Amino acid sequence: MNPKKDLLGIEGLSSKEIINYLDTGEKFLEVLDRPIPIIPALRGKTILTLFFEPSTRTQISFSIAAKRLSADVVSFSTSTSSVKKGETLLDTAKNIEAMKVDGVVVRHSASGAPKILADNLNAFVINAGDGTHEHPTQALLDIMTMRQHFGYIKNLNVLIIGDILHSRVARSNIFGLKALGANVAVCAPPTLIPIDIDKLGVEVFYNLDEVIGDFDVVMALRIQLERQESGLFPSVREYRNLYGLTIERVKKMKPKSIVMHPGPTNRGLEIDPEVADGPKSVILKQVKNGVAMRMGILFIHAGGKIE
Amino acid sequence: MQGVRLNSILIKNGRIIDAKSRFDRIADILIEGNKIQKIERNLKVDAAKVIDATGMIISPGFIDLHCHLRDPGRPDEETIESGSKAAVAGGFTTICCMPNTEPVIDNEGIVNYIKKEAEKVNLCRVFPIGTITKKREGKEISEFGELVKAGVKGFSDDGNTVSDAKVLRYAMEYSKIFDIPIFEHPIDENLSKGGVMNESEVSTRLGLPGSPAIAEEIIVARDLMLSKFTGAKLHLCHISTRGSVELIRKAKKEGIDVTCETCPHYFFFNDTVLETYNTNYKVNPPIRTEIDRRAIIEGLRDGTIDCISTDHAPHTQAEKELELVSAPFGMTGLETALSMIIMQLINIEKFSWLEVIDKLTLKPAQVLKERLGVIKEGAIADIVIINPNIKWILNPENIKSKSKNTPFLNKELIGRAEYVLVNGEIKYQTGV
Fold first, then answer.
1. Shortest Cα distance from A39 to chain B (angstroms)?
2. Where is the active site (chain B) (predicted)?
3. Looking at this predicted complex, what is its ipTM?
4. CB contact under 8 A, B323 and A89
């Protein structure tokens, strides 16, 4: 399969393309369990991780993935966006181009920023999260984790709880899961649900207790405290009471169902520690799968070879 | 046969269209001095200059009720000179410049500065709009008397709505002394806060903060009620939603003294263009859904929408090169409006030329209460000669505006102004 140059989002990918990512990611899981977990697939390739927004986990996950494939990794992160330094993204792109890197992994607080880079770079661009738009690598590792657990995605019932309005993880998961034929629903206060989301084929619920028992996968999203400050819900306490994954609620879940979270978790807020660490949680599996999936993604886009 | 008339221009064989008289016929026009002397078929006159307008459309010069010239304050974006050049290149002979300059147009001194600059530039008529409130702060009404005396043709806090309904009520009541319209920018600031595009399925998919249609409609409804209550003349700027069109249609039936305008980008594009993340599509109000776009076209067709303005909003490349969330609102419009109108309204929607010329000339002249926007014997010779079929590329080097923030850069457009006359003088000629 001839991949597109960039991975900017899940929207618009065919089921075939998504499955190719899942299959490739799964192949690399085995490498991670080897005594010396390194293969020379991307030897001589240079990958730049460019993080304009702080994210230790995702950046580390990408760095490890690239190193496991023997690529050279250069990491750059800044908590202040380049705009503040008076450098536009276009200018950044031109500078990267001049330095001749093969691929760029970018995280940016502005939706669409990776597209600006991709449109102006010969190097491939992997979106590691842009604003409230997409986080395609997270969705792919999430879907890989679901497929690992259930063996199928079609007709799987997935519930995403929390700040859908500002969540790039939710968007990418919705696009990917719908493309593969899963049933996706969201549950949140109406103020945290973006307009017309039902047009994406998503069911919308406001009352978690009524529906939590109907799903195979329950995914909680991180709730940002500044959302409360901007008046979208009355208090953190009330949020936990209505939408938190508490032990009592998780007890109502289906027998074989799982709990997911893209991390980092606000333990005791959107998810109780006992749930995050409990038997239904696959949160650490998601983290491990993240490295394998990102190896697969880099491998596909860098045109790697297995010797 | 008379001798050569000095200072005369003969435009031959053009299709002359005048909205007021509903004249639509091929004829010759003789211009002497600043006036239209004669309109007749096969005029036998030896004029100093003869323009062959065969196949061309001859319209009164366009009147733009809404543009931003950024002068004083932002000469890097636009000046009265560059903005005037852009205006005449687009067929506009009269433009109204909005007062959100630095400093704002809230006193006689700034009005005089603009008038003097425009005189110096000597291309098109430039009518300043004064602020509704001092410093455009939305708190106390400006000195309307001084501003009207200095020459402003309307009042607007454009860029912001007058949030405080009481302040707007006073402004409307007070404006009745001068019988000059209030140009309201109808967008609720709280509802639209943070929005970079229309709030819709598209903004949901793109993960971009949305500004909802109701942010506009709530203020349109409020302003219509205030106009009814005060009896003041209200002109609603850049109408973009179906709900606004419906509210205004109803208000007009009730007899409320309201006029309104829309801009070419609201009937040319729908919000899926934001999928490109091209900041040149970031405008305020935002480009709306296809349903809204259709309603704007219907509003133009049934006369609910009176005028087409440009909301020409120049910004530098550096400003627009930022990400969508950081880039400023606005696209340029003076040099592309005519093509957008031809491509969408004439060629696709099959509007008559009379209908669109009405919205570009007579209707805005009526809002301003100026005796402009007509072609008849004795009228002031503000004229645009249009080639309606020519295909051309909007080359960055040929753009007259100082700013190039248009989504049409390097793209093909249809139709353009070939000659523009203001006060009987040729102020623009394509390629010259």
1. 37
2. 311
3. 0.90
4. yes
